[in-house]
Amino acid sequence: MTPDEVITRVIPQQRWRAAAWLAMALVVAAVAAWELQMRRLGLRAGDLDDSRSHWAVERRKVATGEHDGVVIIGSSRILFDTNLDAWEEMSGLRPIQLALPGTNPRPHLKDLAENSDFAGLLVVGVTPDIYFTDWPGIPLFAGLTDFWREESPSSRFGHRVWIELQRRLAFLDDAYRLGTLIDRAVPLPDRPGVRGPIRDVWKLAEVFDDRQTTMWPRLETDEYLRDHARWVWGPFNGEPLVEAADAERIAAESRKHVEMIRARGGEVVFIRAPSAGLYLESERQGQPRARTWDRLLAVTGAYGIHFEDHDTMRDLDVPEWSHLSAASQPKFTRAYVELLMRDVPWLREHVARRAGP
Amino acid sequence: MVFNSLTFVVFFALVLLAHRLPLPWTAKKVNLLVASYLFYAAWNPPFVILLWISTIVDWYIARGIWNAREKSRAVRRAWLLGSLAVNLGFLAFFKYGEFLLQNWQALMASVGVEYVPPAWDIILPVGISFYTFQTMAYTLDVYLGRSKPLDSFLDFSLFVTFFPQLVAGPIVRPGQLVPQFARPVQATRDQMLWGLALMTLGLFMKVVIADSGLAASADAVFGADKPVGFADAWLGTLAFSGQIFCDFAGYSTIAIGSALCLGFALPDNFRMPYAAIGFSDFWRRWHISLSTWLRDYLYIPLGGNRGSEARTYVNLMLTMLLGGLWHGASWTFVVWGGLHGFYLAAERWIRSRTGVQGDPAGAWNRLALALTTYLLVNVTWVFFRAETFEGAARILAGMAGLAAEPAAVLPTVFMIKTGVIVAGMIAIQWLMRRRTLEDVVARAPWWLTGLVVAAMLFAVITTQGSGEAFIYFQF
Q1: Which of A229, A260, B387, B397 could form a disulfide with A113 if both were Cys (CB 3.0 to 4.6 A apart)?
Q2: Site from A2, A10, A11, A199 to mutate, B interface, most B CB atoms within 10 angstroms
Q3: Which residues of B are catalytic?
Q4: What span, in angstroms and rounded, lies between the C-alpha atoms of A216 and A232?
Q5: Domain residues for B95?
């Protein structure tokens, strides 16, 4: 056949109707069995993946002003440790949750300061071994400061369909894809210096509407998964060691952005959420409070809440040493919102204005 | 939109439904045209304008060339230059603008002039290289007297825009597709089911094999910023060879399957390329629609093999160098094309000296030559995948066992996965070297066909990729 001849395609002789019925029956049966098995493992329908598109939906609410004035950025701790319902119950305001796992919030602080007219209350979660470094974060969430504007119509529509499917099917979970399960099926020894997929963070949380993120119940009860998460956070040797000069530079950069938001009538507060065990010990070595957190507050002049300073935040449950359990999440949220309402005039006044005369 | 997205699933279901409604044929074609524009706009709506411009320009220019057929060659050439200026202008601006500026900057620096180009923040319209080549083929055919202009603007617009092959081919010639628009077509039940089976196979290749099975190994090795050892370098490169094949052949298979579900036939774009014996055989099996396009619209107009032997080698090399540049605005792609040009020239030289044409005798000889071809193709993939020459040199040093203090990069599970998948892929391609997929399926019992399709679909559903773009979209 030459390139100029009309194409015809051969259709293989086959009992196509029978083959199609068989394929359909097998797929339905296999997917049903898979769904049952995934539910048995603790996955639940309605647990939505925290994807780029899911984040972008929330970010666009800030841009279009469809919000109550409170926005949260940070890494996974402020994400896992904040209960949006508790926030709303206490203040009447429902925050927009923009914190991202394994991601440095400073580019987002910069973006909100320089590229938006945001003039609300910005709650910045500080995870010391991320905030005080120049590591931007995991590739999955790279470039989000542009993505939310540029996301294609196809991606936006696909995300809506995906969400609707996830509300009905438990097995549609990023952490339990077939490929991921194969990578983790047998924990093979790796060569020296190689970090295999078994050392990647696995499923830690469930994600719901408005990016409400809460620790996955199984992580609290399954010792293997809990110990695996602790092992992943390791080796708890004080790395990364934050030098004083870097901490000062980062604090000065943060101050610039805090001042830009304040100049528009907004406010910025910092929150250091709980960590525990060897993780906390490692942070004390590598990112000592006096060199990092205290300097951040001093240089920016911002209000801050450190969990170690408040009795109400001391005895919370941190199963894998970095994130609060589902039960402790609303307790911590109530504790820090109460402090914010007491000590941050912007929030007090905003709540009073909304409540009316 | 990408084929491996939920948006496409919904879109395609609606298109199929609309195509089966009891409507006049012209209305169905309008439906397909509108759907094709939506398909493209779903990625970035304003860029549909480029499609419209390309369509309108080539429609009128081809007619201009035809109407000037009694006039001088200069007049017809002027019309042709108009088409080339618009289509190649699009490519030059959107695809090669930054590359040209960077090279101009380097040239100026080499003569001591400091020139800082403005920031080039231009988005590359997806698939621009494919549809510009398709519209140019139409105008070139009219110019070369191979065909006359089409009578229907609707048919021509649909030829340019037909969504299954719009953004990553196969690059179709007017004579292959346009006559299919002339009469009403509706997929038969068997065409529809075979089309759906092909779409399942394509999705399996893309989502399960390319994205989930091999991408991580290739990314780990090519993303390493340190020397890598022999095993890592080879496995990373082999992984990429499998990834790009399954990604691109997967796309083509979905394109062919989706067109078939609508009752249209698109040409094959791949025929077991990693079972090729020699490089002319490889290019008869890899990205067939591009290699034939380059042959018909570049190599032959340059003189092909009609001149002296030296001129033939020059034509061959020029064609492959430009073919390399077509893939991307980087000198690494040019080197990739240059290597293939060198391989083709060397093979031609060897065949002319030894008098051996076609496949050699003896199964073991054929297997050895096929493996040699595959290994040499893998060397070219290093330049295709590496973003810089330094990166390519690092991988090649590792493949030659010459890396200084090489670091281990690949996790054990990735090494095993890559080995198993690539070995399986090579074995299948070798066994099917002289057979088509249609032959194999026709000989299989119906229950085995159903079982295999079900297994692939189950793997696709449970792997549920996040809709990552096909590699060839960037070209």
Answers
A1: A260
A2: A11
A3: 327
A4: 17
A5: 21-185
